[in-house]
Amino acid sequence: MNRFEQLKDLVSSLEGDFVKFYEKENSAAGTRVRKGMQDLKNIAQEIRKEVQDSKNSAE
Description:
about 60 residues; mainly alpha; about 95% helix
């Protein structure tokens, strides 16, 4: 469950940068959004691997 909390925290921390980028057209915020989305992708991939490994070991 720790990874899920990590995902939620990361998404909520990016909210301000999304607003700055899309509404105020702040390009630096766009860079932070891109980095955050890459981190999200990596965490999601780790979760997918953990779930798959857990499923495979249970069978």
